[in-house]
Amino acid sequence: MADPSPRFTQGMETRRKVLGETHVDAAIASTTPFTADFQTLITETAWGSVWSRKNISLRERSMITIALLAALGHDDEVAMHVRSTRNTGASMDDIKEALLHVAIYAGVPAANHAFKIAAQTYAIMNEEETNA
User: How many domains does one find in the chain?
Assistant: First the structure.
């Protein structure tokens, strides 16, 4: 990769802050020539252009992101972003409120499934903290 753009550098900083070093390091380690451009795209745009904006907090961005992912049925991404709440300050109650909105605006089945994913993810997180 050529010298990273300022947006990439900012995006990587934010991405690491939200998702954590371990997650980002694993994503980078699994990058192939086929996926490299995609990794650059999401780092510059999602993380460098959107998540790095100052208008709202990382906590609020977590809530919005989880609600959108739940509404769209992106289960793996819901779990990943629930895990990231330990870094963004979004509480379990915050996520519950976001998922209640999903039930009203995107449908009860989407929210029901997202509640299940979030509950399983929080249980895993609690077990990890207990065993740490």
Answer: 2
